[in-house]
Amino acid sequence: MKVTKFTNCVCLQRDGSLAHADVYVDTHTGKIISGQDFFYAAQELPSQIIDCAGDILSPGLIDVQINGAYGFDFSLWPPLGTENLSKHEQTDAYLAGLDRVAGKIVETGTTSFLPTIITQQQDLYREIIPLLGPRSQANSAHILGYHAEGPFIAGSRKGAHAPPFLLTAPRGLSSIEGVYDSAATQLRTPDSGVKLLTLAPDVDGIAGAIAPLAQLPGVVVSIGHSDADVDLASKCVDDGARFITHLFNAMPQLHHRDPGVIGLLGNQPKRPFYGLIVDGVHVHPNAVRLAYDAHPSGCILVTDAMPLMDPHLGDGIHDWRDGRRLFKQGARLYLENTTTLAGSASTLDECVRNLKSFTNSRCFVDTQRQFRCRLRRGFGDSR
Amino acid sequence: MRLIIRDDKPAVGGFTANYIAKRINEFQPTNDHPRFVLGLPTGSSPLPVYHKLIDLHNRGKVSFKHVITFNMDEYVGIPKSHPESYHSFMFDNFFSKVDIEPHNAHILDGEAENLVEECARYEEKIEAVGGIDLFLGGIGEDGHIAFNEPGSSLASRTRMKTLAYDTIVANARFFDNDIAKVPKMALTVGIATVMDAREVIIVITGKHKAPALAKSIEEGVNHMWTVSAIQQHPWAMVVADEDATLELRVGTVRYFKSIESVQAQQELKYGNAALRPKQRSVHASSPRF
């Protein structure tokens, strides 16, 4: 057995505290093992020792909402620059792009992610989705499957999604399957790659489809881009919806008589998990505190990052898609010449730091540990 | 016997660790005794010694690559992985921080199927590597060394021991303050096993250990203060802090302080090895108590 020992690090303990400790990892399985058993029972020494120089050693982060990064757009088909190539070459280019992101994003602490497909021309789903099954390359983040955000979202809460492609689901579940299913992959098949579906229950036909969708293995239904009132939203939770897509964004603001989707943070008896973009822009620090204090164990940090997410990329105007361009200013991204936020360019490790600083007394640990556990539970990360 | 007195616990740890490192570095391997063999204790008194040894190791001043260690004792009835086991103590506080080879680190196995055999094998293993060069120890408030509680035979060898009630009560703080959870038995080296070592160093720190120190070195050899057996050892040293000397007579303290510098001069002139007795110990060559 080959073992790597991380030493001189501060790491998470079971009880959520941080402590100086050594961590021993089986190099083959990637699992944390007992250094003591390894010493006394196997009577061996680590084959590699990594000195962390006092840094925090944490489990890898999981991003369940990321639209692209390092110049690659998960939702763009055919991939940029491959318009005149064969289908086969386009597929290769897309997978190469995915792998490039997976390889680079580990520098931000993200070790698993769900490529997120925003509202597309309907035909394109069957091109992209078959490419988004679970995928792992050496020294890269794991692709756990995909998050489909749209096309079943409310036009009134479309955000940066393209209005002509929004759909309703007059035939309920079969309308939804009609979009996401292809010859290669079907929502009903386990391991099809589907992990998270953002749906607006106020879109025609969606509310009734949530219960059967939530029954499908591996599918987590998320409420988002929606004008649903609180009654409709909590019925969705009763029906099995377990997540809220980027809380506060693309939904009505909290009203005390009808708190809407945000009101699910006070729901009884079950409260869903909620994605929160803690880039310091999409959600004001006070609103972050409100949500986090209301339901700390439900908070899941997401980046909602755009292809321009690249810690090495400068500010300015950058090409996006469909001839549109984005203005990047730090972690902020706007549709060119507007004040419409178009996703974020924050990295997930920045979001973790932000949450730690916004919520002050909360330890880093808490967000980290729970984040990981929660996602394991919620998204079937079997590792 | 020598008594070295230092201001406080860290200074005691520093002196002792430097001394041990020096002995390891001076060691001359021979065919039938190829490795330096070190006896080790657990507990709070030796912790500063371990800290300093790790520090010396990190600075490249000493290596444990070729050192063989034998620990004094281990509980029976708790798994090795239990946080209060001496396996855990040694791994956390020493073995995981230095370059010792796992197969050279010996600790009694309190989970062994046959505990009597385990103890006998332990003595054989010590003999097989040429005996212990230096046994480091601490003591309890009642002057016990390892789990050789008051009344233990001074001729004892490695064996099972039932813990004294006081020890069980004292240990309860490590086991959720629940006496029911405290192991009632242990495997321990005997007094004779310790005294067989070529050299014995006992660290004693803190005011609460002061009566034990006085009883052990100012009064006679007595099985009620088992560490008093070091009076019969040809090359033993007690390293104490000022607090631990509070019950000693002024004359005793002055005497040992005065001979420390004389001893140091002699060592400088002749070398430590030349001053040490050539025989392993009185016990190895003469009838036991």
Automatic annotation (TrEMBL), chain A:
Task: Provide one Gene Ontology biological process annotation.
Answer: N-acetylglucosamine catabolic process
Tell me if Metal-binding is a UniProt keyword of this record. Answer: yes
Q: Which UniProt keywords apply?
A: Carbohydrate metabolism, Hydrolase, Metal-binding
The entry's substrate-binding residues are 160, 249-250, 257, 282, 341-343
Q: Which PANTHER family match?
A: N-ACETYLGLUCOSAMINE-6-PHOSPHATE DEACETYLASE
Task: Spell out the family assignment given in the record's similarity comment.
Answer: Belongs to the metallo-dependent hydrolases superfamily. NagA family.
Q: What is the protein name for this chain?
A: N-acetylglucosamine-6-phosphate deacetylase
Species of origin reads: Wallemia ichthyophaga (strain EXF-994 / CBS 113033)
TrEMBL record, chain B:
Single GO molecular function: identical protein binding
Keywords from the named record = Carbohydrate metabolism, Hydrolase, Isomerase
Tell me the Gene3D superfamilies matching this sequence. Answer: 3.40.50.1360
- EC numbers: 3.5.99.6
Its top-level enzyme class, in one word, is: hydrolase
This protein's source sits in the domain of life called: Eukaryota
The chain positions of domain Glucosamine/galactosamine-6-phosphate isomerase read 15-231
Its cellular-component GO annotations read: cytosol
Q: From the UniProt record, give one GO term of the biological process aspect.
A: carbohydrate metabolic process
Q: Which family does it belong to?
A: Belongs to the glucosamine/galactosamine-6-phosphate isomerase family.
What functional role does this protein have? Catalyzes the reversible conversion of alpha-D-glucosamine 6-phosphate (GlcN-6P) into beta-D-fructose 6-phosphate (Fru-6P) and ammonium ion, a regulatory reaction step in de novo uridine diphosphate-N-acetyl-alpha-D-glucosamine (UDP-GlcNAc) biosynthesis via hexosamine pathway.
Q: How is this protein named in the record?
A: Glucosamine-6-phosphate isomerase
